[in-house]
Each structure stands twice: as C-alpha cells, then as structure tokens.
Amino acid sequence: MALRNLMNKIIVILALILLWPGMAVSQSHSPVVGYGSTCRSAMGAPHKHLGINRAFMELQKNFERKGLQIQMISHDRRFIRADILKDSEVIDSIILDTMTGKMRSVY
Q1: How many angstroms separate the CA atoms of 107 and 95, rounded?
Q2: Which of 98, 96, 100 is nearest to 33 (CA)?
Q3: Do residues 38 and 8 both lie within one domain?
Q4: Which residues pair with 104 in a beta bridge?
Q5: Are residues 80 and 90 both part of a single domain?
Q6: Whole-angstrom Cα distance, residue 13 to residue 85?
Q7: Which of 34, 38, 50, 68 has the fewest CB atoms below 10 angstroms from its CB?
Q8: Burial class (CB in 10 A: 0-12, 13-18, 19+), 93
Q9: In whole angstroms, what is the distance from residue 67 CA to residue 96 CA?
Q10: pTM for the complete prediction?
Q11: Which domain covers residue 18, as residue numbers?
C-alpha cells in the first residue's frame, strides 16, 4: 500500500514537472493570429499569386488596421514568415501562404 502511494506521488510530480513549462508559455503568450486566419485583401482568391512584395504590403495594411507593425523574417516563392510587433516588441510570429492568403501563428 505504501509503495502504491509513493508511485502515485512520483507520477503526479513527474506530470507537473513535464507540464509546467508548457503551462507557463501558454499563459504568457497568446497568438495574435488564429489558426487558418485569412489576410483581408486580394490574396483571398485561390490560385492568385500576388508575389512576395505585394503580399507583404497587403499583410502590412491588414495589421496596421489593428495598430500593429509587421517585420518580414524570411520568404520563399510561396510563403512569408514575419514577426508581428506592438511597441517594438514581438508579440507573435506568423507564416503567410501568398497563394491563398491563409496565415497561422508559429507559436
């Protein structure tokens, strides 16, 4: 009986140790962009590739309406990775599909 109680306590302690860092991150950071959000612009049309520069300009307009700034981190032919800033502090990082206009938080 004492061994079973000890095992239960060890399992609870291990679960708390493993889950604690994840709980701390999830409470301190909430993504600005929900899963599958769409950038309101001409990018919403399927298979209409605007190009990296035009797509980034549309992305900037989208976040300026919310009082946020955007900074491009990297891009390839189809995707843009960017940081969203508020008062010069990164509050989210996103990936934008320039073909569909869909964006999602990296966090």
Answers
A1: 10
A2: 96
A3: no
A4: 95
A5: yes
A6: 37
A7: 34
A8: middle
A9: 19
A10: 0.58
A11: 1-30
